[in-house]
Amino acid sequence: MQQNTFSGNDPIGQFFNWNETMWSEMQKARLGDNPVSQALSQVNSDDLQLFYKAVSTNPVRLLDMQMKWWQGQLAICQNSMTKAMDSSTESLVQDPPGDRRFRHEAWKTDPHFDFMRQSYLHFAQSLTDMLDVVEGVPESVRERLKFTFRQTINALSPTNFAWSNPEILQRTLEEKGANLLKGIKLFQEDLAASADNLKIRMTRNAAFTVGQDLATTPGDVVFKNDIFELIQYAATTKTVHKTPLLIIPPFINKFYILDLTEQNSLVAWLRDQGHTVFIMSWRNPGKEQASVSFSDLVQSGTMEAIRVIEQITNEKEVNAIGYCIGGTLLASTIAVYAARRMKSRVKSATYLTTLLDFEYPGEIGVFINEPVIKATEELIDSQGYFDGRQMAVTFSLLRENSLYWNYYIDNYLKGEEPADFDILYWNSDSTNLSSTCAKFLLRDLYLENRLREPGAVKIGDFDIDLSKVATPSYFLSAKDDHIALWDSTFTGSNLLSGDKTLVLGESGHVAGVVNPPYKNKYGYWTSEENFEDPEQWLASATREAGSWWTHWQQWVKPHLGEKEVPARAVGSKECPALMPAPGSYVLQTLPIEK
Fold first, then answer.
1. Of 77, 324, 437, 575, which one is the catalytic site residue?
2. Cys bridge to 547: 74, 383, 444, 517, which one at CB 3.0-4.6 A?
3. Residues 83-114: tens digit of each pLDDT
4. Is 324 known to be catalytic?
5. How far apart are CA 446 and CA 467, in angstroms?
6. What is the pTM of this model?
């Protein structure tokens, strides 16, 4: 770690020493001290040993890389000396595309900080290049090391230290250290609210109130059991489509990502298109729900929701939308109908950023190996659940500069609370996973990829086979999705039978889905080609401006029923309204003791 050159005897020096201590403690909190962290450390150690062994077999290549780094560093030194005499001199090393860490003008105009910036970026690139060219490293090991190297490099960025960040230096001097005192307070509050890993706030905890600012679409809970609440929304049109619509959100997040503020609400937009909209609100499980399984989420979850919708609407089929792992649940539900030799109760199935084939799960794959999975199983068995706050930190670290370190700098070094942002508020409103369900996801789906194997996954008494799912399907993936890679989600579509429509949206896992037509912020690609190769499919695709929402509405029309019916009342005699939307389960926040 870079050493602080300030005296500890004066107030400013004390602030910088406090920052160094806070950074050290933050690292401990970020990495955690539990069996999973220990397993990750051991895997990393084993990977490094393989890497060092591979390097040692080709010392000439290593020497060549070292010489390239040394030559580059000498050029940076010369450039900095020239820049000290002539401020118009251009830097040799430019910021990587999209890298916003060095926006403050002093990183370019001050020779000292420019030298630091260039040296850091040059070293980072040299280390990355070395990993790419070293031969004899297994690809799985190389991918894990890329992640580890990137995490280490970005953690040690000079922007993350008060004494090496010109913007923080200036602010600290101007505010006489008040910014760091505010930051320490925010850090202590975040640490107290975290699980084993430090969860940095991304928005103000009091920025929104669910049911007042978010999840405000009018409706009622019409069914409730120990696993979910079913919400039916009030119609806004005089007539509605005959076939009702069920939305299955991910059970690792809260449903209101699809019902944010009114202008960002997919739920509100869908009912304005004449759909009778139902959505599942999953319970936030605690220790008492440890035994709730993936099979329970199907049998007592999605299948039960479809049964209740029939009671309310007298319709035996629904159109269904499954988001992320909710889509995995949807495909499994339809496969159960097939296994039971029943007519599918799902007329059309829409899969939003959904993995069915988990062979290439994206960067989350660095955590998918036997030692880490085993340690995770031990941890969640001891807790009775997989703590949602730990999951949130894990997903944030997949995009560490934009979803972790920038908030560390703004919150703890600048002493600023983050801005109010509905999506980030939802992202911070974490949900647990029951122990049994979490272990199934980690081992059966991610590690062993059993869902793609006919008969390998059992739901209740029935072995399911995705190839028996013949329901017409619509796959929406997101080009910049780092949680469910778009080519992996499209590959999973090939496991299903029936007609398939593939649509690739711009942006990422959330923004690519929450893309209202009022804004038309992102476009999408469509192609009639079967999906075999991502580059080939994309080359054949046509980009369309506007939101995929309107494209989906056109696609689903043949499945809406021939005639519209009078707008339906919320609930029925058999399933009366129990409480106003958004219900009670969505209001459960972590930690949950029961």
1. 324
2. 517
3. 889 988 999 999 999 899 999 999 999 999 99
4. yes
5. 19
6. 0.89
